[in-house]
């Protein structure tokens, strides 16, 4: 884990090395000041030598200022190294997430990834900074103070040693108990982020169903879980302070008593006694700092494991060694295709699929909920790989293509339409970054989006809120279709992408497709017969199997499932949403 994390220090190695160097120099300066103070007391004050006091006092000022400079520089280099390290970690995680296939993304929840990119990386950043500064400074300061104490008086220094051993045993015992709570708390953070994200994303539904109290209670529960975990941990860690205070005071009393006795017997000078008391505080305070570091390290270890999981996750879909960059046409063929989302699944979601679509055809796909319609089209653009069999595009296995090339030629309007914060033009140019405003408008005309855009206050420069929350479902769908058209793909997949528009607008979109992009293979998943009945051929799926493939008329004659759907939708007054827009 450490090897993976530290490999991202990169250009901040120099800062990481300079930090402990300055920390060591600061400690050396701190160790010199008590010695200089002893010199002033023993030879200046008692000797009545003012010149000596001024000279040593000047040395003390110089040493203190240099120590201050070292401390400031250590802080500057440490901050730069830790923030740079955190930046590199976030960048590496984010870039790796962009390579994930849908199968990789399915392993991590959205809230979990957000927690890892924010809270977990912040914990690692803080721990790294403390390691560079305090974890170097504290042990060195303790050791230096202990050595200096033994050089002055081994008898009194042994009191420090006993105190350090006592506190070390107690602190490490407490840390072992605290560790399990910090390892669990980040899973609770995931739950909290999930609750917040779900609530904000679906705030309109929450208000429509008057479920604010329920959501508040759910948030309080998730937040309360984190609170309880931290309270349990803090109850244990708070024992540090009284134990430390007791030990420090006990040491000071013992040192004062023994030191005073030795001063009376003239085996120890007053200045050296003052120095030993200063070293006592230094040793025990640094021990407390070390205990804080261990608590922070415990938290960061749990965070580090979660970050490394993302960094080491390998994309399940990668380019072949010599990828093909030329998609000849929009023909699609499924050869003995079976597919499962999980290797351990007992039953595949798609079974023995054999289909062939000619380039330029309009193909309709219909089936009940859970019949794996979306799973089928996801294989075309290689969002998932087949478990067995082959998917051919342009006569070649999709696994032989360069992924970017393939996905540029297979434009998919997913079932869940997503718009990003920005203007309408900026959203449209996701399809083609270099598209002119006229090209964007033409695509919107084809998708029947231009008509409502022209009624907006700033037309194509109208700002779209995150997720497209300030446009209707039907408008969002049409903008996504226009965005896909700008790619000028050889294959256009519409995954139930006109469900929120009325049948009249749906018909206009289909007519525009037929007239404007006749050479593009159009694959339309729909719940409505009216959306696909004019397709060249229609696929009927049921429970992951093809149970019908033919024209609308052929399926009405020989396919029971298609007949039932047709009768259910047209037996009354036609489509329920005819003439309306969602």
Oligomer: single chain
Major sheet strand order = 6-9-10-3-11-12
Instruction: Please state the overall shape, judged from the principal axes of the Cα atoms.
Output: elongated
| Proportion of helical residues | 55-70%
Structure description:
This protein has helices spanning 2-6, 13-45, 50-99, 102-107, 110-152, 154-201, 203-208, 212-237, 240-264, 270-312, 373-378, 403-409, 424-428, 437-446, 450-453, 473-485, 503-516, 529-532, 552-558, 560-570, and strands at residues 332-339, 350-357, 362-367, 388-393, 396-397, 410-413, 422-423, 463-464, 491-495, 521-525, 537-542, 545-550. A hairpin with a 2-residue loop joins strand 4 (388-393) and strand 5. It contains 20 helices and twelve strands. The model is unreliable at 572-582 (pLDDT under 50). It is elongated, with a radius of gyration of 35 Å. Helices cover 63% and strands 10% of the residues. It is α/β, with parallel strands linked by helices. The strands form three sheets. The protein has a six-stranded mixed beta sheet. Strands 2-1-4-5 form a four-stranded antiparallel beta sheet, with no helix packed on it.
SSE topology sketch:
Elements: H1 2-6, H2 13-45, H3 50-99, H4 102-107, H5 110-152, H6 154-201, H7 203-208, H8 212-237, H9 240-264, H10 270-312, E1 332-339, E2 350-357, E3 362-367, H11 373-378, E4 388-393, E5 396-397, H12 403-409, E6 410-413, E7 422-423, H13 424-428, H14 437-446, H15 450-453, E8 463-464, H16 473-485, E9 491-495, H17 503-516, E10 521-525, H18 529-532, E11 537-542, E12 545-550, H19 552-558, H20 560-570
Parallel strand pairs: 3-10, 3-11, 6-9, 9-10
Antiparallel strand pairs: 1-2, 1-4, 4-5, 7-8, 11-12
């Amino acid at each position: 884990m450490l090897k993976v994390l530290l490999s991202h220090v990169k250009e901040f190695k120099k800062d990481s090395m300079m930090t402990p160097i300055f920390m060591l120099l600061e400690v050396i300066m701190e160790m010199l000041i008590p010695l200089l103070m002893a010199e002033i007391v023993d030879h200046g004050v008692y000797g009545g030598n003012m010149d000596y006091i001024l000279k040593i006092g000047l040395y003390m000022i110089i040493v203190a200022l240099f120590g201050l400079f070292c401390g400031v520089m250590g802080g500057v280099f440490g901050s730069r190294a830790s923030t740079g390290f955190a930046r590199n970690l976030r960048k590496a995680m984010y870039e790796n997430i962009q390579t994930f296939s849908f199968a990789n993304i399915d392993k991590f929840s959205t809230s979990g990834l957000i927690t890892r990119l924010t809270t977990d990386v912040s914990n690692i950043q803080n721990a790294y900074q403390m390691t560079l500064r305090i974890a170097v400074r504290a042990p060195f300061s303790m050791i230096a103070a202990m050595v200096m104490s033994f050089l002055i008086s081994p008898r009194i220094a042994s009191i420090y040693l006993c105190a350090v051993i006592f506190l070390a045993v107690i602190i490490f015992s407490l840390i072992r108990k605290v560790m399990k709570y910090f390892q669990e708390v980040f899973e609770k953070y995931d739950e909290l982020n999930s609750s917040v994200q779900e609530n904000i994303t679906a705030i309109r539904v929450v208000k429509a169903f008057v479920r604010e109290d329920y959501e508040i209670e759910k948030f309080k529960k998730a937040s309360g879980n984190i609170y309880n975990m931290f309270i349990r941990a803090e109850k244990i860690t708070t024992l540090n302070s009284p134990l430390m205070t007791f030990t420090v005071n006990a040491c000071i009393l013992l040192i004062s008593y023994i030191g005073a006795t030795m001063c009376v017997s003239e085996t120890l000078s007053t200045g050296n006694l003052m120095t030993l008391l200063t070293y006592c505080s230094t040793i025990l305070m640094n021990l407390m700092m070390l205990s804080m570091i261990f608590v922070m390290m415990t938290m960061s270890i749990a965070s580090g494991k979660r970050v490394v999981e993302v960094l080491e996750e390998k994309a399940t879909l990668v380019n072949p060694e010599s990828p093909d960059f030329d998609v000849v046409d929009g023909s699609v063929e499924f050869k003995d295709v079976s597919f499962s989302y999980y290797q351990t699944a007992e039953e595949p979601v798609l079974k023995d699929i054999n289909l062939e679509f000619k380039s330029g055809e309009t193909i309709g796909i219909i089936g009940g909920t859970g019949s794996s319609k979306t799973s089928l089209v996801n294989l075309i653009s290689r969002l998932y790989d087949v478990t067995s069999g082959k998917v051919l595009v342009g006569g070649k296995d999709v696994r032989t293509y360069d992924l970017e090339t393939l996905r540029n030629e297979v434009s998919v309007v997913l079932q869940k339409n997503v718009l990003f914060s920005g203007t309408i033009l900026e959203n449209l140019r996701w399809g083609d970054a270099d598209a002119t405003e006229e090209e964007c408008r033409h695509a919107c005309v084809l998708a029947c989006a231009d008509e409502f855009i022209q009624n907006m206050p700033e037309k194509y420069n109208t700002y779209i809120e995150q997720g497209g929350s300030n446009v209707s479902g039907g408008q969002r769908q049409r903008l996504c279709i226009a965005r896909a058209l700008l790619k000028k793909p050889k294959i256009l997949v519409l995954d139930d992408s006109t469900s929120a528009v009325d049948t009249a607008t749906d018909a206009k979109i289909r007519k525009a497709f037929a007239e404007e992009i006749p050479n593009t293979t159009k694959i339309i998943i729909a719940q409505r017969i009216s959306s696909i009945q004019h397709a060249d051929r229609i696929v009927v799926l049921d429970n992951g199997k093809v149970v019908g493939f033919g024209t609308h008329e052929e399926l009405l004659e020989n396919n029971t499932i298609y007949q039932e759907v047709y009768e259910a939708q047209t037996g009354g007054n036609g489509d329920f949403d005819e003439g309306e827009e969602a």
